[in-house]
Structures are given as structure tokens and as C-alpha cells.
Amino acid sequence: MPMDDKFMLMIPGPTPVPERVLLAQAQHLIGHRSGEFSQIMGEITEHLKWLHQTQNDVLILAASGTGAMEAGIINVLSAGDRVLVGSNGKFGDRWVKVCEAFGITVDLIEAEWGQPLDPAAFEAALTADTAKAIKAVIVTHSETSSGVLNDLEAIAKAVKAHGEALIIVDAVTSLGACSVPIDDWGLDIVASGSQKGYMIPPGLGFVAMSDRAWAAYEKSTLPKFYLDLGPYRKSAAKNTTPFTPPVSLFFALQVALGMMREEGLEGIFSRHQRLQQATRAAMKALNLPLFAADDVASPAVTAVMPQGVEAEAIRSTMRKQFDIALAGGQDHLKGKIFRMGHLGFVCDRDIITAVSSLEATLTHLGATGFTPGAGLAAAQAVLMASG
Ligand SMILES: *Cc1c(COP(=O)(O)O)cnc(C)c1O
Fold first, then answer.
1. pLDDT by residue (tens digit) across 327-368?
2. Is 10 domain-assigned?
3. Is 170 near ligand 1, meaning CB less than 6 Å away?
4. Quick one: 251 and 157 in the same domain?
5. With contact defined as beta carbons under 8 Å apart, do 376 and 282 qualify?
6. Is the CB of 317 under 6 A from ligand 1?
């Protein structure tokens, strides 16, 4: 179709990829054992530490975000270990499944989808563990299924007070959207994936490992080979990889991280905050109920639960009429919510376009109880006040 290039991804991953990054991937391949590749690897590693605000190792895997998380779990734990997993959505549930697949015993701290995890519940469970049986606490920072940002700083504090447990974090939709100060908060293992905040296509997973994580690695007895982080660490020290890396994605990552450094961490975080606030202001002005409260809203994605109009009808009209992809609900929220991603390579204009298309869509679907133009005005007010 002639207009296919206008396709606009407003989902929380894969996220839009800048043209410079797309073109970088189109280059001829180079050997991954060449000096040229080592130079790229060295630059990327340095930029990754900057993005992760850490001196720790940040390792790169050819895997999706789940692969990075699985690596973060199987490299520091052993079968029969006890862990505390926080779950308030689809991704929290996933870490329970990964742990169970490896014979790790899970104590669950839950919250309803749309509600944040309660740091006090972690504190209570960790304080009660005087025998120090809990080996790790596993949390999803930004729960993409519901658009909730959990209070990672407070949970990390409770873990530090315990003294023994590691903290393993899914930062897949928080890294590159809001601050995840690994060293300041003492996060031991932090996993992320390329198709979210990194502005590159899917295919790479990242795992940051603290010294405490490496000490636990020495004791971990779970079987591993491709995801054994030891060889990745050894190779990274020599600016290389243990296995053939997706070379084109490394080209892409080099360019994307260069763009991120140009914008700066503060610039990246404040842009995401502005996009989030503009999106939320627009939804409120359109009387569309937000699934998560303001004070726990994710910087990456906004979940909306429309009343009187089908969420799936909204998504389908947005796609057909405006070439804009919105995400749907997962599991029990399928068909009940839509999720608008504002993560990665997204700018003010994208929000304006999406909100105005949404208004036209609501009108087209016969929705009532809103004033056309009100959402757009609210979004504009936020964007122009803070731009
Ligand atoms: C996207 C995502 C993942 C990773 O999913 P993959 O499909 O394995 O890349 C993990 N956690 C969260 C919170 C995510 O949003």
C-alpha cells in the first residue's frame, strides 16, 4: 500500500525506530571477531553503563527481554531456593512461571492489576525472614500490562535492610524512560530489552550484574549454557561476545545510544514524563477512565478502560482509518482496555496526532459524554507548558 510508510506504532514495544537507526542496520555486515566490531562493542558497553547509571557489568544477549530476565534468574539462583516475587500484572506473573520452571520456590506478593505493589508488604516479609532463607526479591519496575510504575526505590531499600537477598529487576519498560539508578539504589540484576526504550528493533536483551550478583553466580547450580553470563562477562572485558552476535542490531544500538547521549538522561526522562502527562490529561478531558492512578503511572504506557465503546473497536478504527497501532489488554483485560505506548522514539507531535485521531475515532463510533477537541486542548496545554 502506498501509505504503509505512515504506519505509526503507539504500543509499548516494539517501539518506533528512528530512520538513522534503520539505515545503520542496512550496512554490510562485518566479522564479529574484527577490530572494527570490537571498537563498536567497546563504545556500546560504555554507553550502556551510562544509561544504566552503573559501574557494574552490563551484558548483551541475543534474546528478548524474557531471555534477559531468565538469564538474570538462572545465573544467581539454584533449584530449591526461595524467592519473593512481586506481581501486579502479566509480567510479574511471568517471573513466577520462570522461577517455577527451574524449581525455585516462590513466595508471592500480589496487587490487583492497575494497583501498585506495596513496599510495606516486602518489608514485612523480609523482616520476618530472620533465618535469611529468601535468596532474591524479583520485581517488575514498570508493569506494562497495566501501566503501573512500582516503587522500586522503596522495595530496594527493604531488600538492602534484609542484607542477604538479591534484588532482581525487570526494567524492560522503565529503562530509557525514567531513572533507574542501579548503583544508587543497589540493584543487583537489572534486565531490559532492545525493542522498548532503546529505539531499536527486538532481538537484544541486556543484563546488568552487581558484584553481589557475581558472588551469587559462583554458588548458583542451575544448568545453563547459552545464557551462562560468565562467558559474556569474560568476552565483554575484551570487547567481544562469546557467540555470533546479531551484528546489524549492534550497528543500530551504536547509533541509538549515541542519540540518547545527545539528548541526555534528564532530557530523555523529562520527555517521557511530558508525553505521559499529556496523554493522561487528554484521556481525562475526554472522560476516558485511566486504569492506573496518577501517582503510580508508568512513563512508558497509559492504559485506558473506555465505557460505552468497545476498546477493540477503538483499536480497529485507529488502525484502519489512521494507521495507528494501539495495544490491547492482556489476559483478563483482553477487550476491556487499550494501551497507548509513549516509549522510546516518541515526540510531542505523535501524542497530538494520536489524541486527535482518537477523538475522531470516538465520534465515529458514536461515543458520547465528551467534547470533541477537549482532549487535544488538554494535551496541547501540557506540551506547550513544559516544552
Ligand atoms: C516487553 C516486556 C518484557 C519482555 O518481553 P519479550 O517479549 O520477552 O521481549 C518483559 N517485561 C516487561 C515489563 C515488558 O514490557
1. 999 999 999 999 999 999 999 999 999 999 999 999 999 999
2. no
3. yes
4. yes
5. yes
6. no
| Ligand 1 pocket check for 150: Cβ under 6 Å | no
Residue range of the domain that includes 274: 264-386
The number of folded domains in the chain is: 2
Q: Could you tell me if 243 and 360 lie in one domain?
A: no
In ligand 1, the atom with minimum distance to the C-alpha of 143 is 13
Ligand 1 binding pocket includes 172 (Cβ within 6 Å): yes
Single-letter residue type at 231: P
Q: Which of 218, 245, 262 is the last residue of a domain?
A: 262
Q: Any idea which residue has 530449591 for its cell?
A: 80
Amino acid letter, residue 258: G
CB 13 near ligand 1, within 6 Å: yes
The single-letter DSSP state of residue 29 is: P
Residue nearest to atom 2 of ligand 1 (CA): 172
Is residue 144 lining ligand 1, measured as CB closer than 6 Å? yes
Contact 311, 358 (CB under 8 A): no
SS3 158: helix
> Which of 204, 237, 262 lies at the terminal end of a domain, its last residue?
262
Closest residue by Cα to atom 3, ligand 1, is 65
pTM above 0.85, yes or no: yes
In angstroms, rounded to a whole number, what is the distance separating the alpha carbons of residues 224 and 78? 11
197 Cα to the center of ligand 1, angstroms: 11
User: Residues 198-249: pLDDT tens digits?
Assistant: 999 999 999 999 999 999 999 999 999 999 999 999 999 999 999 999 999 9
**341 within 8 A of 328, measured Cβ to Cβ:** no
